[in-house]
């Protein structure tokens, strides 16, 4: 029976040699051609700036910034950065006029991500003006500090507090300056923990910390527990011992929800093997980043083992039919291999990432994958694919876009 969600992986696994057909020059050519294609599609009108970094034009600006940072594109750097600035400037104007104050603190779907990207692009261009969007970004911490600042759920990655903390990590890494004071970060972490405790108690869940988004108790990276815990781990040096205990208890509890190398989209669900979600947004390809972070923080082998099992599932079921993107597409799956390469140094994972990259350009993929609304976008479209291909050129520095575990 044909799998509705993924193509069959017909590639032979690693036998000790990387793919010869994919040299760096051919990847560079593909990246340049794909960027040309994207820039023909990206809207430049103020009214088309919705969607934030996720599927709005701002994500294209981030992609151009990411490519410009790679030495393989040194000649294109200035052109890419100037184009990124034109795109992000319109998005900044759009969020400056955002009526919904609370959505301005959203990382992937609102203002925080747009201001963060503007700061990175301006700084890369050598403009002292980068302080303006950075200041707007910093001021948003007050918006997301109150416990229930969003009715739909104040803690998740796309619009909530953990997304804001994620943006702080990215900015700290790229700008090499402190973004918020330790006290400000601590206040946000404490709000996440208090909110998770309160919800777990109210719903009588067995988890020490639990959250919901639009009434659903998600477990995955997009809106769920795994990315919230990943952000707490990223700032664990600021937590008290009691808070750390709750955090680690929740990490281990989530590890125990594994079903055959995967995690259900929501708490208590049973995975249907024929129809399971193996996406960054829901399932093992996103949850793996939490356990990668846990392993980097405390070096316990069970966390790395969990990541490795996730990688095996992705090799079997990660050639997804939902497009080329990073949220629920092939590039998002392939990023798991680059993560595992950085954790283990095993070249098998570069080989697997190369095979997934190869598949993206086959007739089978083009004919059998579903069409994407915003083909240019970072999370659903080709901009995420470009980020992945660029990271394939520099696997030692590779990271899932805007979702760092190595800081």
Automatic annotation (TrEMBL):
Task: Please give the family membership noted in the entry.
Answer: Belongs to the LanC-like protein family.
Q: In its UniProt record, which GO terms are filed under biological process?
A: carbohydrate metabolic process; peptide modification
Give the matching Gene3D superfamilies: 1.50.10.10
Organism for this UniProt entry: Synaphobranchus kaupii
Q: What is the superkingdom listed in this entry's lineage?
A: Eukaryota
GO molecular function per UniProt: metal ion binding
Annotated Gene Ontology cellular component terms: plasma membrane
Protein name in the entry: LanC-like protein 3
Report if keyword Zinc is assigned: yes
Sites binding Zn(2+) sit at: 281, 327-328
Which InterPro entries does the UniProt entry name for this protein?
6hp_glycosidase-like_sf (IPR012341), LANC-like (IPR007822), LanC-like_prot_euk (IPR020464)
The record's section on CDD domains has: euk_LANCL
The protein's matches in Pfam families, at most eight in alphabetical order, are given as: LANC_like
Keywords assigned by UniProt, alphabetized: Metal-binding, Zinc
Q: Has the keyword Kinase been applied to this entry?
A: no
């Amino acid at each position: 029976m044909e799998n509705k969600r993924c193509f069959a992986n017909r590639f032979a696994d690693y036998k000790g040699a990387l793919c010869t057909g994919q040299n760096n020059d051919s990847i560079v050519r593909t990246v340049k051609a794909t960027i040309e294609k994207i820039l023909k599609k990206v809207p430049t009108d103020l009214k088309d700036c919705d969607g934030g970094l996720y599927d709005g034009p701002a994500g294209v600006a981030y992609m151009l910034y990411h490519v410009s940072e790679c030495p393989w594109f040194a000649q294109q750097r200035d052109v890419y950065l100037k184009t990124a600035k034109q795109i992000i400037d319109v998005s900044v104007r759009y969020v400056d006029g955002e009526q919904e104050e609370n959505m301005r603190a959203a990382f992937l779907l609102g203002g925080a991500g747009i201001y963060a990207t503007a700061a990175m692009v301006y700084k890369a261009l050598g403009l002292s003006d980068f302080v303006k969007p950075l200041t707007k970004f910093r001021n948003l911490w007050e918006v997301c500090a109150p416990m229930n600042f969003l009715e739909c759920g104040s803690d998740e990655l796309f619009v909530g507090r953990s997304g804001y903390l994620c943006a702080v990590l990215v900015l700290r890494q790229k700008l090499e300056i402190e973004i918020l004071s330790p006290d400000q970060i601590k206040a946000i972490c404490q709000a996440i923990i208090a909110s998770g405790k309160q919800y777990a108690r109210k719903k009588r869940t067995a988890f020490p910390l639990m959250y919901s988004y639009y009434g659903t108790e998600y477990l995955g990276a997009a809106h769920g527990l795994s990315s919230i815990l990943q952000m707490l781990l990223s700032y664990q040096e600021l937590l008290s011992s009691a808070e750390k205990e709750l955090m680690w208890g929740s990490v281990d509890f989530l590890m125990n929800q594994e079903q055959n190398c995967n995690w259900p989209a929501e708490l208590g669900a049973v995975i249907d093997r024929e129809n399971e979600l193996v996406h960054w947004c829901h399932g093992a390809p996103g949850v793996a980043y939490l356990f990668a972070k846990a392993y980097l923080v405390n070096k316990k082998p069970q966390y790395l083992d969990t990541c490795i099992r996730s990688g095996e599932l992705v090799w079997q079921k990660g050639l997804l039919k939902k497009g080329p993107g990073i949220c629920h597409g092939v590039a998002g799956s392939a990023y798991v291999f680059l993560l595992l390469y950085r954790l283990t140094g095993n070249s098998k994972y570069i080989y697997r990432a190369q095979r997934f990259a190869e598949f993206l350009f086959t007739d089978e993929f083009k004919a059998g994958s579903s069409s994407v609304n915003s083909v240019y976008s970072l999370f659903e479209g080709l901009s995420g694919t470009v980020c992945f291909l660029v990271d394939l050129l520099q696997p030692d520095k590779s990271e899932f876009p805007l979702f760092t575990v190595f800081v």
